[in-house]
């Protein structure tokens, strides 16, 4: 089955700096890679996703890149703000055959220091 | 409001008791899930239903039994609660094929004492 690893487990950045979170997956059949943000006391919320036919996707200050050959994908947050502080999860699944069984990475706790 | 709603938000109970957590979504999604989040924040899938049919049943003790009366509801019943069941349980829903990803509920924090 799929296994998703995520690094770093904790990340502190100064406000305005960039933050990068990296993930690797094991199942080459995976074709959908979402990223979720979980604020304290709340459920995870989808912030961006990418499918295997795309190498990069951007939404304002957030971008995700995917390297299918290396089975790596990364989240990039630019111009970080204190409200970006949260736990971020990467995930992977094969939407065609896995019945939407999304496997999550262990999470990265991001702190943005004002 | 359109959402995934779970009840109760907090549940404190003694070992050996039986409890249920309810989940409802009004997003028109066809698939619902239960995830368990442990103290280290790790999210692990437990069950998934598509149009009331069980499609994912992970290695979960059979003390846990999901029930989906219709595609808008997915409940979780837990028998003979143990200390290790303490966690946050999240319900989620989606369109099959992850067209817009998951929408999660706000979670139920279960504490077994």
Explain the overall architecture.
The complex is a heterodimer of chains A (114) and B (113). Helices cover 0% and strands 54% of the residues of chain A. Chain A is globular. In chain A, a hairpin with a 6-residue loop joins strand 4 and strand 5. Chain A contains no helices and eleven strands. The N and C termini of chain A lie far apart (41 Å). With 114 residues, chain A is mainly β. Chain A has strands at residues 4-7, 10-14, 19-25, 32-38, 45-51, 56-59, 62-67, 72-77, 86-92, 103-104, 108-113. In chain A, strands 2, 4, 5, 9, 10 and 11 form a six-stranded mixed sheet that branches. Chain B has no helices and eleven strands. Chain B starts with a strand and ends with a strand. Chain B is globular and about 40 Å long. In chain B, strands 2, 4, 5, 6, 9, 10 and 11 form a seven-stranded mixed sheet that branches. In chain B, strands 1-3-8-7 form a four-stranded antiparallel sheet, with no helix packed on it. In chain B, strand 4 and strand 5 (43-50) form a beta hairpin. With 113 residues, chain B is mainly β. The A-B interface holds A 32, 34, 36, 38, 41-46, 49, 87, 89, 93, 95-96, 99-104, 106-107, 109 and B 4, 31, 40-45, 48, 50, 55-56, 90, 92, 94, 96-98, 100-107.
């Amino acid at each position: 089955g799929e296994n998703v690893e995520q690094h770093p487990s904790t990340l502190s950045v100064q406000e305005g700096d960039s933050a990068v979170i990296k993930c690797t997956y094991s199942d080459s059949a995976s074709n959908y890679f979402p990223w979720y943000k979980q604020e304290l006391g709340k459920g995870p919320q989808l912030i961006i996703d990418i499918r295997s036919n795309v190498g990069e996707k951007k939404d304002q200050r957030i971008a995700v890149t995917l390297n299918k050959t290396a089975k790596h994908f990364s989240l990039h947050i630019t111009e970080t703000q204190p409200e970006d502080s949260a736990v971020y999860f990467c995930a992977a699944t094969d939407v065609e055959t896995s019945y939407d069984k999304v496997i999550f990475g262990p999470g990265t706790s991001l702190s943005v220091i004002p | 409001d359109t959402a995934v709603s779970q009840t109760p938000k907090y549940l404190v109970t003694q070992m050996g008791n039986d409890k249920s957590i309810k989940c409802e979504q009004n997003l028109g999604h066809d698939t619902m899930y239960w995830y368990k989040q442990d103290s280290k924040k790790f999210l692990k899938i437990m069950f998934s239903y598509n149009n009331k049919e069980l499609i994912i049943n992970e290695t979960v003790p059979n003390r846990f039994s999901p029930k989906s009366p219709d595609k808008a509801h997915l409940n979780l019943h837990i028998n003979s609660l143990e200390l290790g069941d303490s966690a946050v349980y999240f319900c989620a829903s989606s369109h099959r094929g992850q067209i817009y990803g998951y929408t999660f509920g706000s979670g139920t924090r279960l504490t077994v004492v």
